[in-house]
Each structure stands twice: as structure tokens, then as C-alpha cells.
Amino acid sequence: MTKEQAELASARFIHFLETGVPPEGLFSPDVFCDFTLPRWRLQAQGLGAVVELRRAGHAGPGKVSRSRCDPTPTGFVLEVEEEWTHGGESWYSRELFRADVNGEAVQAFSVYCTGDWDRSRRAQHAREVRLLRP
User: Fold this and answer.
1) What does each C-alpha distance from 27 to 22, 49, 74, 101, 114 come to in angstroms?
2) Is 51 within 8 Å of 35 (Cβ atoms)?
3) Where are the domains of the chain?
4) Of 27, 78, 108, 132, which sits with the fewest C-beta atoms within 10 Å of its C-beta?
5) CA–CA separation, 22 vs 12, rounded Å?
């Protein structure tokens, strides 16, 4: 996949992350998702099941505040920082997606997630860790 193709596909993927609604043709009908959390692993197959898995973890819209996309021979790797509000709480996570693309449709993807950090977890992290790079 070229850098331009990967960036276009990842921009459509980010739209899905921010809205919970996949753009037309983003996923193949039988798309497969393998989702790894800090101490759990979930899978979903099929467009409806993948969308439901996403909405179960992120019920409302959010914002990808930072992203990086790198092409691979079969798709792309996308790193994101994501923020959203749910139940009156502000949440944050970092995720890495490795996607296989067929034509313009994501056929399969893996997700590696830090888990969801609330305000308290982010404050604890800021007190206890000095990051070298944001």
C-alpha cells in the first residue's frame, strides 16, 4: 500500500473512531476485528458486530487528538490518542491498529489498547511519570 492510500484509508478509519459510524465501504462485509485490552481479548466478525464492539467500548463520539499512519505491504498501521466523554467523565486512551486492506476496504484489523484512563488515572500518571516526548 502506498503512503497516500494508507493515509486515505486511515483518515476514513479515524472518522469511524470519532463517530462510531463507518464511512461507506470502509469495511468489507465480513471484516474481522481482534481487540486486545490490558487484561482481556475480544473478537468480532461482520460489519454489524465490529460496529457494536466499538460502540460498546465508546458509546458516544470522541476526538482523535493525535495520530500517525504508516503503510504496510497489505494495509496500514495507525497509532492514535483518543479522547471522549461518557457518564460525565473525561476519558483517554492510546491505541495501535494494524489493518489489512483489500481494495479500499479493511478486511481485518487488530487493536492494541492501553485501556481507558479517566481524569484520576491521567492525573496520577502526570504526577508519577515524566514523559520524554508527548
Assistant:
1) 8, 12, 15, 9, 24
2) no
3) 3-128
4) 132
5) 8
CATH number of 3-128: 3.10.450.50
Cα separation, 49 vs 55, whole angstroms: 10
Q: At residue 50, what is the residue type?
A: V
List, in sequence order, every residue forming a beta bridge with 102; answer none if it has no partner: 105
Strands, sheet with 89-102, edge to edge from the N-terminal-most edge strand = 40-45, 27-37, 105-113, 89-102, 75-86, 62-72
Map residue 97 onto helix, strand or coil: strand
**Quick one: CA dihedral 102, 75, 9, 81, positive or negative?**
positive
Q: Is 121 exposed, middle or buried (0-12, 13-18, 19+ CB in 10 A)?
A: middle
Q: What is the pLDDT of residue 57?
A: 86
Three-state SS at 38: coil
- 50-67 pLDDT tens trace: 999 999 988 789 999 999
